[in-house]
Design goal:
Blueprint: H1 3-14, H2 19-39, E1 58-64, E2 66-88, E3 94-99, E4 106-107, E5 112-116, H3 119-139, H4 155-176, H5 183-229, E6 232-234, E7 252-257, E8 264-265, E9 277-292, E10 304-309, E11 317-324, E12 334-341, E13 353-370, E14 375-377, E15 380-387, E16 390-406, E17 409-418, E18 425-429, E19 440-442
Helix pairs in contact: 1-2, 3-5, 4-5
Length: 449
């Protein structure tokens, strides 16, 4: 079929539906290529040679790797707690007659919080005191005898001692035979001696029992007196704060109060009864953090911690690591750290949310590069440095970032570890066409040096 015949066929096909046009155009293009191969190319035509590609020079900007002081930080967030928190409630029942303190007040150990009506407890003390006096009167004493008290000094025992001596003398007289003595009289006298000794022993036992009863009454009196003292609710004595190194006297802040004058206080199970007062030691505070296991060897006791809280934006509060839990939580692979916050001025409050930066290490001459110089892909970081007019790829490990003010702008520099020295020319732009060993031309526009 000739080329003219092909063209006529194409014209006929164009009159068909539009979607056939695409197929026709493709066939026509194929025929044209075929015709060119059949009639246009000579068999003995020589192939053309490839034109050699010239090496491309990439324009880049550079900056110098700089040694800067860098602090390595472990950051976490947590909540502030009081150094010690205690819920206090009266130990006895009664009607509240006075409330001394309210929420927000600063109180010291021993200061009163509230008073209950003490009338019933005063009567109980008087009753116990009278009972004790009754027992002491049986002994002929005015005061409670001590643990080394000799019961043979009591009148009841002294009387039986005299009876024993009298019976012994009578037996001796009868045995001496000063007159006619019958065996019956001697036997009776001997029996009287045994009875006198038994009476003495009984008197000693009764005296000891009376002393024991007096001591029991003394204990009852002390218990009644204690209940009387418990009608006044006072601030408890906190745990020692010597380990914190704080010189400030221990004080509590009242964070909760649920009692009013005239209210009747009942003793009910602790799980159901809200406390009358909740007291918090807020000088110092504790910050509890949970850190990943990888930081276990970095965090040490005594390390400095910088805190930030939302109520004081931009302000840094100083603290220190006070406790580290040596155990790792199996489920989360984390460990707990406790930080002590002095809070001498009481600006921070228990329950606040805080961000903490634990300073684990400070390096005075760490190598840093501009953030834009780092290329990261598939978890691997590298930078390019100038080696003469060539670029060289250097793998690095990134660390702490630092924001530096340069003129009227702020620039982020990143600590790196690798085969890199301070002063090296680090490429900061032009990465899209760079490869290790390529030739590069350093521009001197913005960002380059």
């Amino acid at each position: 079929m000739s080329v003219v015949g092909n063209r006529e066929a194409i014209v006929k096909l164009l009159k068909r539906r539009w979607w056939v046009v695409l197929i026709v155009i493709g066939v026509a293009g194929g025929l044209a290529v075929a015709s060119g191969h059949l009639g246009g190319n000579k068999p003995d035509a020589a192939p053309k040679t490839a034109t050699p590609v010239k090496e491309t020079t990439v324009s880049v900007t550079v900056d110098k790797a700089t040694a800067r002081p860098v602090r390595r930080l472990v950051s976490a967030v947590g909540s502030l707690y009081g150094w010690d928190e205690v819920a206090v409630t009266p130990k006895v029942e009664g009607r509240v007659v006075r409330v001394y303190r309210d929420v927000g007040d600063v109180v010291k150990p021993g200061e009163p919080l509230l008073d209950l009506d003490a009338t019933d407890f005063q009567l109980a003390v008087a009753e116990a005191r009278r009972a004790l006096e009754l027992e002491l009167a049986k002994l002929g004493l005015r005061e409670q005898p001590g643990p080394d008290f000799d019961v043979t000094q009591l009148p009841s025992v002294v009387r039986t001692d005299s009876l024993v001596k009298q019976a012994d003398l009578r037996v001796k007289r009868l045995q001496a035979g000063g007159r006619a003595v019958t065996d019956e009289e001697v036997q009776q006298a001997t029996t009287d001696v045994e009875v006198a000794k038994a009476n003495r022993q009984q008197a000693v036992l009764e005296a000891k029992a009376t002393i024991a009863a007096a001591r029991q009454k003394q204990a009852s009196l002390e218990s009644a007196e204690q209940r009387l003292r418990d009608t006044r609710l006072i601030v408890p004595v906190p745990l020692s704060l010597q380990e914190t190194g704080m010189k400030t006297p221990a004080e509590y802040v009242i964070s909760f109060r649920k009692v009013t004058e005239g209210e009747m206080v009942r003793i009910i199970p602790l799980v159901d009864a809200p406390p009358m007062f909740r007291l918090v030691i807020d000088r110092p505070l504790k910050l509890q953090l949970t850190l990943p296991e990888r930081h276990r060897t970095e965090v040490k006791l005594g390390q400095t911690v910088e805190l930030e809280v939302e109520s004081y934006p931009g302000e840094i509060f100083s603290a220190a690591v006070s406790r580290i839990n040596p155990a790792i939580e199996r489920s989360s692979r984390t460990f707990a750290v406790e930080i002590i916050v002095p809070n001498a001025d009481r600006r921070l409050g228990a329950g606040s949310f805080a961000k903490a930066n634990i300073i684990t290490k400070e390096d005075a001459k760490a190598v840093t590069v501009p953030e834009e110089a780092i290329i990261s892909f598939a978890g691997i970081s590298r930078i390019f440095i100038m080696d003469g007019d060539k670029v060289k790829a250097v793998p690095v490990k990134t660390g702490t970032t630092t924001v530096i003010k340069e003129g009227d702008r702020q620039r982020t520099w990143v600590e790196v570890e690798g085969n890199l020295k301070p002063g090296a020319a680090v490429v900061t732009s032009g990465f899209s066409r760079l490869a290790d060993g390529m030739t590069a031309n350093v521009r001197t526009d913005a960002g380059g040096k």
